[in-house]
Amino acid sequence: MSILEVDNLSVSFKQYTSGLRQHTQEVISNLSMELVSGEILAVVGASGSGKSLLAHAILGILPSNAQTSGKIRFDGEVLTTKLQEQLRGKEIALVPQSVSFLDPLMRVGAQVRTSVRKGKAKEAQKKVFERYHLKEEVENMYPFQLSGGMARRILVSTAMVSGARVIIADEPTPGLDSVVIKEALTNFREFADQGCAVMLISHDIESALQVADKVAVFYGGTVLEIAPAENFEGNGDRLQHHYSKALWRALPQNDFTCEFKN
Ligand SMILES: Nc1ncnc2c1ncn2[C@@H]1O[C@H](COP(=O)(O)OP(=O)(O)OP(=O)(O)O)[C@@H](O)[C@H]1O
Ligand code: NI
């Protein structure tokens, strides 16, 4: 069953060029896709292809000069600005790409606790810190005192304790060591297995494929194809699009199958 549906979404930015002349740049074009309960959808594609903007459009946190058209539905209901506000951080949680999303003036333990909706906040926060190997003293720190990897683990923790039904994770793993990456990906898998849905935006196709059910390949602001994860194997012959094949074959471990070899 589909929890979140994106229907013909376009996003453009109005920018002033010289003087008062306006220029509109479309950064997402006629994009349709869905998140299904119980599934992880990995989203892969080049830098600048619109992955983060799609996440922000779903959450309703695009910059104010962005114009959108199309519809996004949660549980069949069309998302309005008001509904997005109500669902944000509650039914739909974001693991943002940038650690600047953390509140610089709030201790990180408190930030995680404010996201807990069910059960005891303190307990949930302690448990999730333990899970992500964050020492007890970290809860009293401010974001500026954290390393990049610690800040990222705080962002993942915040989404994990929220009790949301949809998690949109925008590059949640860079800078993390392999043990924590595995832990986070396993948690996303468990989360999906409980009947929730995950959108996992990642440059790390190899890791994403370990847990994803389907992969959406992004290019130039739209989805080229959505393929079952198992189609990413061998030479990539089961992938439909040249770009998807190229993306897959460009991975270091696939050099062996590259035609240029010999
Ligand atoms: N506020 C903005 N105003 C104008 N253009 C923007 C704005 N934010 C993003 N863009 C443009 O939209 C495009 C998509 O950006 P987006 O951040 O979604 O890419 P991405 O796929 O997430 O890239 P990355 O993999 O590097 O995170 C880029 O070309 C970017 O320059
Ligand atoms: Ni991005």
Automatic annotation (TrEMBL):
Record text on subunit structure and interactions: The complex is composed of two ATP-binding proteins (NikD and NikE), two transmembrane proteins (NikB and NikC) and a solute-binding protein (NikA).
Ranges of residues in domain ABC transporter: 4-245
Major location (coarse): membrane
Gene3D superfamilies for this protein: P-loop containing nucleotide triphosphate hydrolases
Pfam families documented for this protein: ABC_tran
InterPro entries membership: AAA+_ATPase (IPR003593), ABC_Ni/Peptide_Import (IPR050388), ABC_transporter-like_ATP-bd (IPR003439), ABC_transporter-like_CS (IPR017871), P-loop_NTPase (IPR027417)
Catalytic reactions of this protein: Ni(2+)(out) + ATP + H2O = Ni(2+)(in) + ADP + phosphate + H(+)
UniProt keywords, alphabetically: ATP-binding, Cell membrane, Ion transport, Membrane, Nickel, Nickel transport, Nucleotide-binding, Translocase, Transport
SUPFAM superfamilies xrefs: P-loop containing nucleoside triphosphate hydrolases
Family: Belongs to the ABC transporter superfamily.
Topology class, membrane: Peripheral membrane protein
Tagged with keyword Amino-acid biosynthesis: no
Protein name: Nickel import system ATP-binding protein NikD
Compartments, record wording: Cell membrane
Class of enzymatic activity (EC top level): translocase
Annotated signal peptide: none
SMART domains associated with the record: AAA
Molecular function terms from GO: ATP binding
Enzyme Commission designation: 7.2.2.11
